[in-house]
Amino acid sequence: MDELLDILSELHPDVDFESEDALIDDGILDSFDIVTLVSEISERMDVTIGAKDILPENFNSAEALYDLIKRIEDEEC
Question: Which terminal residue of the chain, N or C, has fewer Cβ atoms less than 10 Å from its own Cβ?
């Protein structure tokens, strides 16, 4: 989770990602941010997020995104 929080903080240092739960709904993350996130997660965490997983509910909070990463890791094992 720390690595994910680092990635998110690099995108928007002014956002408290540990408590924010409407990143997409409130317009904090836009489509460019999502593309950047997917790329950074792939590169730094060795997790490939597929197009089917790019849904607002998976990116609305750091916790939801972390849960998605864990699910993908479990599926790859």
Answer: C
Q: How buried is 7 (Cβ within 10 angstroms: 0-12 exposed, 13-18 middle, 19+ buried)? A: buried
**Domain range spanning residue 30?**
2-76
* Cα gap 37→47, rounded to integer Å: 11
Write the CATH number for 58.
1.10.1200.10
Give, as one character, the DSSP assignment of residue 60. S
Divide the 77 residues of the chain into consecutive groups of 10 and give the mean pLDDT of each group: 97 97 97 97 96 97 98 91
pTM for the predicted model, two decimal places: 0.94
The number of folded domains in the chain is 1
